[in-house]
Design a protein that fits this description.
Layout (H helix, E strand, L loop, with lengths): L13 E8 L6 H19 L8 E3 L2 E5 L6 H8 L5 E11 L2 H13 L5 E8 L8 H16 L2 E2 L6 E8 L2 E5 L3 E2 L11 E5 L5 H10 L4 E8 L7 H13 L5 E8 L1 H10 L5 H19 L5 E2 L12 H8 L6 E2 L7 H11 L2 H4 L21 H9 L3 H10 L2 E6 L10
Parallel strand pairs: 5-6, 5-7, 10-11, 10-13, 11-12, 13-14
Antiparallel strand pairs: 1-3, 1-4, 2-3, 4-8, 4-9, 7-8, 12-15
Helix pairs in contact: 3-4, 5-10, 7-8, 8-9
Bound molecules: adenosine-5'-triphosphate and magnesium ion (MG).
């Protein structure tokens, strides 16, 4: 069903979005922290469109809509704010049955349906009619206007009426949003972003749990072109719309790769690259006070992602390594990338740093002794220090001004 934009009408209440968020497990202080962060994030997400302040009541936010043209752009932004379960265009009216009925009739007149239900919830028990009496009265008015039948178990459209404090809210179209938890409530993590298909999806899933990400990309410029950097930059630009401020660390990896090539067996290269990536990412994580690392690995998708190799790679990390795609098939990951919107950026052709110098048959059961033997020939501390000292950091903001600056 098309979203209804015609909620504006002279004299019938105040148009607004009513915003519903998940309540599971939210108690006491935890709840106000969650609500505070969500409200902050919503304001940030729409600050270039509207600055009207929101109201909070009984586990919902009300965002007043100053004009009809703002509905569509605000809807697009709200759909991407983690923590919102759904939202609805609504009319806020005074607590009076005449006004409630007029608002319901107005909203329902703009929809097509052959069956409907009215569902009333009263948080204000002083209202003279019971919920059931409101349902019957408004239901009769809507029935007379539309000719549709009442169906309480499987209606085409449900009109919700919520009575609280000294106001009432009426709405008939719920728009599903991203769900999850507001970014910022679950601390920080460093995401290893290759600019392939998987790592942006992994990043999205972790952000969705309320984690603020810092991104790290390893590149082999000047031996490769800067295409992988451009790709990672585009991905971070896109992903920043879910967390509003991002940093991308661009780590030069060529020197590390060349040293590994010179000292390690060919089939162990990828395992060693990955161990260095984790070590470097972890140093950045400590600097950023991040509590975990994130990768786009999926079990057995490629040789470096067997459990044996993951074990040997993981050993260098002291922080937890989150692998949200561990159990997903490639096809499922591609589907998720399409839904999120990262897929079209990922498939831009590029030479990643790890497509270079990769043998045809990498080891699938890496042995720790072989890895340690190869690493003992490297000047580890210096390699890590050098790579970090040449690392560049880019900053991203959403929304941006037309000049691309932070608002
Ligand atoms: P992706 O689609 O994310 O590139 P992939 O299937 O190509 O994943 P690999 O190339 O083996 O798998 O990489 C596994 C994970 O290691 C990636 O998901 C990413 O988290 C990390 N990674 C790999 N290459 C890089 C890189 N150049 N910079 C940052 N992280 C990387
Ligand atoms: Mg890759």
């Amino acid at each position: 069903m098309k979203t209804q934009w015609k909620i504006f009408a002279e004299g019938i209440g105040e148009p607004c979005f009513v915003i519903h968020y998940g309540e599971v497990g939210l108690k006491g202080e935890n709840r106000s922290f969650f609500e505070g962060q969500l409200m902050k994030n919503i304001k940030m997400a729409i600050k270039d469109i509207s600055k009207t302040s929101m109201l909070k009541y009984h586990g919902r936010f009300i965002l007043p809509l100053p004009s009809p043209e703002l509905m569509e752009p605000i809807q697009e932004r709200l759909a991407r704010v983690f923590g919102i379960v759904y939202f609805a265009p609504a009319l806020l009216v005074t607590q009076d049955i005449e006004h409630i009925e007029t608002a319901a009739r107005h909203l329902m007149a703009n929809l097509t349906f052959s069956s409907f239900a009215i569902k009333t919830r009263r948080a204000q028990k002083r209202f003279p009619l019971s919920s059931q009496e409101v349902n019957i009265r408004v239901g009769a008015a809507v029935q007379q206007q539309s000719g549709a039948r009442v169906d309480l178990s499987n209606p085409d459209v449900t009109c919700y009426i919520e009575i609280f404090d000294n106001k009432a809210l009426v709405y008939a179209q719920k728009i599903p949003a991203a769900g999850g938890l507001p970014v910022g409530v679950s601390e920080r993590a460093v995401s290893l972003l290759s600019a392939g298909i998987d790592s942006p999806v992994a990043s999205y899933k972790i952000m969705k749990r309320g984690v603020k990400l810092i991104f790290v990309h390893f590149h082999s410029v000047p031996l490769t072109s800067s295409a992988s950097i451009e790709n990672a930059t585009k991905q971070v630009e896109f992903l920043t719309q879910f967390q509003y401020h991002s940093k991308l660390y661009l780590v030069p990896f060529l020197e590390v790769q060349q040293q590994i090539m010179a000292h390690a067996p060919k089939d162990y290269r990828v395992v060693l690259y990955r161990r260095f990536m984790l070590r470097l990412a972890e140093k950045i994580a400590y600097r950023e006070r991040a509590k975990a690392l994130v990768t786009g690995e999926s079990i057995a998708q490629v040789a470096s992602q067997t459990l044996s190799n993951m074990q040997v790679i993981n050993e260098v990390a002291t922080l937890p390594v989150l692998r949200p795609l561990a159990g997903d098939d490639k096809e499922e990951i591609i589907q998720q990338a399409k839904t999120i919107g990262t897929f079209h950026v990922s498939i831009d052709p590029y030479e990643g740093c790890c497509s270079l110098f990769i043998p045809k048959h990498p080891v699938t059961r890496a042995k720790r002794e072989v890895v340690l033997e190869a690493e003992s020939k490297l000047d580890m501390d210096n390699l890590l220090k050098e790579a970090l000292s040449k690392t560049e950091v880019l900053k991203f903001h959403f929304p941006k001004t037309e000049q691309g600056e932070a608002l």
